[in-house]
Amino acid sequence: MHPTLKVYDENAVKPYCSTRVNETKTWQSVALLDTHVNVQQALNDAAQFGIRYVLIGICEDIGPRANLGNGGSHQAWPAFLQYFLNLPVNQFNATQQVLLLGEIDVDDVMVQAQGLNNQHAEELAQLRKLCASIDERVEAVVTLIFNAGLEPIIIGGGHNNSFGILSALSKHSGASVNAINFDPHADLRPCEGRHSGNGFSYALKKNALQQYHIIGLHEQKNNQAIFDLIAQNQCSFHSYQAINIRREISLTDAIQHALAAFNNAPLGIELDLDSISFLPASAYTCCGFSVSDAEHYVYLTAKHSTAHYLHLCEAAPLNHPAGLTAGMQSCGQIISALVNAYLHAKTR
Fold first, then answer.
1. Dihedrals φ, ψ of 216, to 5°?
2. Rounded distance, CA 42 to CA 188, Å?
3. What is the pLDDT of residue 54?
4. CA distances, 322 to each of 73, 76, 268, 278, 294 (Å)
């Protein structure tokens, strides 16, 4: 089908699914891709049959590790599937417009990264090279989705994957694009080798990204060089402190102000799960936003006329204080809520 894509069939989905009498579950409503033709043709056909949104997973944690952070983000996608696919179908959702595509195949890269210590300079350099190889796969697969006129919802992995996604959107549109990001970190670290902390830096350098706004940027979690870079480019932000501490602006007004400032270029919606308090993520925080705040952000941004995708990254179930099982449940529920906020905004 495609060298860097695992296309899901019924057998791949079955382990995540449960049944209940007199209830239709989401897994019984979403579509799977036709595997009898090539991926691009199958996606084009899906669009003709009424599909609008494509769920795609990335099971990697190389980006966060290459950023001197914690691993675990490779488990976010299965956490999402086991929760989302078993939600009941009713009048409030539009799962018949959703295609469950599968996951970008990074198994071989994850094997190469296994055991590499990010505290050793040579091994850190290896992690960053492996991260760059993932960029190419992400861009290739997401480009197929955009070329079919569909909107990808990309789940799992680190924020490094923003670069491949933005590159794909820019390539598809033939121009640089915009992004809004719900994140305590700007992810504008130097272009020092690829990792989860410089996806937007590389997108700016490549001219894939023009306007970039961060909602909830934490004033104590970004160095001065990053604030200088924001000032030097078409970047802007509303800080966590301005919204939640000093109460200079409400979250709703901050989001609407940011959206009003964008031009008509395609817009990417980015959300780092470490913006949410107590959610197991690559960078766990006790001082963040609520889940409902994050849902509100997704809902408002998805309503924007130029919104082209949703990227939910950095959830790491293993980092839950109570262990992996609790982390899978927590991450699955919250990621599902964010996906539903996007679909609700788009379909109602």
1. 85, 15
2. 36
3. 99
4. 17, 16, 33, 11, 23
Instruction: Give the CATH number for residue 50.
Output: 3.40.800.10
pLDDT tens-digit map of 54-63: 999 999 999 9
The token pair that represents 51 in the structure block: 């599909």
What predicted TM-score, i.e. pTM, was given to this entire model?
0.98
Count the neighbouring beta carbons within 10 Å of the beta carbon of residue 157. Answer: 33
The pair of structure tokens assigned to 260 is: 């009003």
31-32/98-104 β-pairing:
parallel
Provide the 10 A C-beta neighbour count for residue 319.
22
At residue 311, what are phi and psi to the nearest 5 degrees?
-125, 115
Contact at 8 Å (CB) between 164 and 139? Answer: yes
Q: What are phi and psi of 44, to 5 degrees?
A: -60, -45
Collect all residues with Cβ–Cβ distance below 8 Å to 96 and sequence separation of at least 6: 29, 30, 31, 50
Helix, strand or coil for residue 220?
Answer: coil
Angle at 269 between CA 265 and CA 274, to 5 degrees: 150
pLDDT one-digit tens code per residue, 142-169: 999 999 999 999 999 999 999 999 999 9
DSSP state of 89: P
Question: Which pLDDT band, with edges at 50, 70 and 90, does 120 fall under?
Answer: very high
Q: Residue 130 sits in which domain range? A: 5-347
Q: How many domains are there within the chain? A: 1
Predicted confidence (pLDDT) per residue in 15-58, tens digit? 999 999 999 999 999 999 998 889 999 999 999 999 999 999 99
- 174: which residues sit within 8 A by CB, 6+ positions away? none
Where does residue 238 rank: exposed (0-12), middle (13-18), buried (19+ CB within 10 A)? buried
By DSSP bridging, strand 5-7 and strand 98-104 are antiparallel
Please state at what angle helix 121-147 crosses helix 39-48, rounded to 10 degrees. Answer: 50
Q: What is the DSSP string of 235-251?
A: EEEEEHIIIIIS-SS-H
- Residue 110's SS3 state is helix
